[in-house]
Amino acid sequence: EYIMFCDRDDVADKDWCAELVACAIDNPDYLPVCGLVFLPDGKEPEYRKLTENKVSATSYRLFGINDLMYLSNSFIIYNPVNKIFRSDIIKNHNIRFSQGDSLGEDAVFNMNYLYHLRGNIAYVDKILYSYCDVNPTSLCKANYDAYAKSYENIFNAYKELFTKLGADSPENIIDLHSYHYNEILRSAILYATDKGFNCG
């Protein structure tokens, strides 16, 4: 009934499945998303989550298509590992990961899936997944050219989603451009300074 993804190098919380399944049952027309922690090799952990909602006692926070860039700025949208997907949507609409791209295909998959939920996302306000960047042969060690191409694919997937859902307002498109160029600049700086990148 549901599909989840887990990278073999990562560590999932013991409640990862249970929490996301419960959210999916309560919110069938939303994509459940939880917080995660990124553990770069030899560096401080990076917590990728929304600011805690101390006012509401509810377990889930519901968002629509116009909140997509806000959620993206918290780095919780790209990866499929902190989400749970309805298998009927994936199968009925033949949603697949691109076999021609080694970077960015996760975000494109997520955008294609979100179209069938009208861009609706349910956020589980917990850190339930640890993304471990310790594999020296990981695709995340690719060169800058590969990253630049992936960001172009991701940008086009976002823009297509906004257009198809009638959410291509000036505000959303401006936020998308800002996010896109910030990511390219961030990657360029990493490329120039981080030994993790293959600069050859």
Outline the fold blueprint:
Layout: E1 2-3, E2 11-12, H1 16-26, E3 31-40, E4 46-48, E5 60-63, H2 68-72, E6 85-86, H3 87-92, H4 105-115, E7 121-133, H5 144-164, H6 170-193
Parallel strand pairs: 3-7
Antiparallel strand pairs: 1-6, 2-7, 3-4, 5-7
Helix pairs in contact: 4-5, 5-6
Question: Could you characterize the architecture of this molecule?
Answer:
- This protein has 200 residues and is of the alpha+beta class.
- The protein has 6 helices and 7 strands, in the order ββαβββαβααβαα.
- Strands 2, 3, 4, 5 and 7 form a 5-stranded mixed beta sheet that branches. Strands 1-6 form a two-stranded antiparallel ribbon.
- Residues 195-200 have low confidence and may be disordered.
TL;DR?
The chain starts with a strand and ends in a 7-residue tail after the last helix. The relative contact order is 0.19. The longest helix is centred in the C-terminal third of the chain and has 24 residues.
Keywords:
200 residues; alpha+beta; five-stranded mixed beta sheet; two-stranded antiparallel sheet; 6 helices; 7 strands; disordered C terminus
The low-pLDDT segments are: 195-200
User: Averaging pLDDT over every residue, what do you get?
Assistant: 87
First-last Cα distance: 45 Å
Q: Which secondary-structure class do the elements indicate?
A: alpha+beta
Can you tell me the overall shape?
A: globular
- Number of E-type strands: 7
Helix content: 25-40%
